[in-house]
Amino acid sequence: MSISDLEHPAGGYKKIFESCDELAEPIPAHVSGKIPAWLTGSLLRVGPGLFEIGDEPFYHIFDGQALIHKFDLKDGHVTYYRRFIRTDAYVRAMTEKRIVITEFGTAAYPDPCKNIFSRFFTYFQGIEVTDNCLVNIYPIGEDFYACTETNYITKVDPDTLETIKKVDLCNYLSVNGVTAHPHTEPDGTVYNIGNCFGKNMSLAYNIVKIPPPQDDKSDPIEKSKVLVQFPSSERFKPSYVHSFGMTENYFVFVETPVKINLLKFLTSWSIRGTNYMDCFESNDKMGTWFHLATKNPGEYIDHKFRTSAFNLFHHINCYEDQGFIVVDLCTWKGHDFVYNYLYLANVRQNWDEVKKAAMRAPQPEVRRYVLPLDIHREEQGKNLVSLPYTTATAVMCSDGSVWLEPEVLFSGPRQAFEFPQINYKKYCGKNYTFAYGLGLNHFVPDRICKLNVKSKETWIWQEPDAYPSEPLFVQSPDAKDEDDGVLLSIVVKPGVTQRPAFLLILNATDLTEIARAEVDVMIPVTLHGIKSQ
């Protein structure tokens, strides 16, 4: 079972939410075990690294200033390096020694040094949206971009970790922001989703397409375009979107009941002390809606798929099979917003308090939903799913909507299988067998999990008082099977006196340890990342 029986009374997990310094140069790691000769290149990850500016604290886990981490692997040797990304949010905070730009859960206050007139003026310039790109890093063309979920992405140098430039996607695309979880095709084409103002000022969601690297070496972002538009269930309240699904021929968009109240966002911003978190609300009536669109050409498919309420951050994978689309998700039951439980004050509490809070929070579950592509009105009340290997159902209702019930792939009380990864290069959008994830024990990351989505068999790696990060799958060069390869994760052991953090390399087949590369610095929490060549 992928359930953690570990307890954390020592509270070591609090240390992954503490500020650290950047490094002047890469530091060597102490390797134990034997790193496979074929495993070279860099592991790049981002996350928060500065949790306060002077005596002003950040309040939410997604507010800390973006820090980029790199483990370099070469000839069996490993180095570790990290630098703060020089975003406007960071540079201005450093210059003014205060929080200048409002972050996800922390409001910036007006400059106390300004007089009433200049403050009034600033007020009319509107919202300064954060560029604090702490969530993910991904390639576009030949370049690498760190991102959050706003319209700003930041180009970084994957070798030196230097910040190159801030890019405003609004200059190229009709979107208010895009997710930190784009999809990439083998040729380098990038797809993403973001909300926008559609027809007659009502809200919609756009799938955008950024072409692959250009022969003339021009920037692919300049050639981005909107491919297809999904309607919004509510005119002025888009749902919060963190990721989406893509098969060979379709896009899957799951519209959850966690809503952004745009009117509140636009009006209360000028009022002192409003932040992004204040603008979320839950619709306790709508449940969850699934939407489909074709990829080529991009066209919305007007089937009304409905199911009960859940939060969704991460799609695992989805694929087409015999006239159905199979959608595997990391869900959290109900409409209460999970981010309400991710304030730093919550995650830094003592273990007993952390456990109590997780009791009240939405419960995690890995689910498989199956959407029929061929829908006939006359089959009311009958399960339309005929795939032999799943218990997921889809039933036509009298109003023409299709009610979905999932197959549960993994469920444990307050034990989440989250930050999912697959053999993406070979199996994204295709029928697959294995998912890898970070196990959250009452929101505390304390194990690495593997799930066979066909048999529901699970494997885990864990050590007492060790806190891993999202495991990235790297396929071995002579791979025959889907899970031939390794998993890379940054693990922190705050309780030890020497070398408290390490890069962990696991055999992806059975989660046994191959090697670890330990460093003599603490490493704070990281969210997402990539393995680059």
Automatic annotation (TrEMBL):
Q: What superkingdom does the record give?
A: Eukaryota
| Residues that, per the record, bind Fe cation | 181, 242, 314, 528
Its GO biological process annotations read: retinal metabolic process; zeaxanthin biosynthetic process
Which controlled-vocabulary keywords does the entry list? Iron, Metal-binding
Task: Cite the cofactor comment.
Answer: Binds 1 Fe(2+) ion per subunit.
Per its UniProt record, the required cofactor names are: Fe(2+)
Q: Which Pfam families match?
A: RPE65
Identify the InterPro entries for this entry.
Carotenoid_Oase
What GO terms are given for molecular function?
Answer: all-trans-retinyl-ester hydrolase, 11-cis retinol forming activity; beta-carotene 15,15'-dioxygenase activity; metal ion binding; retinol isomerase activity
Q: Into which family does the record put it? A: Belongs to the carotenoid oxygenase family.
Which protein are we looking at? Answer: Retinal Mueller cells isomerohydrolase
Give the organism the record lists: Sinocyclocheilus anshuiensis
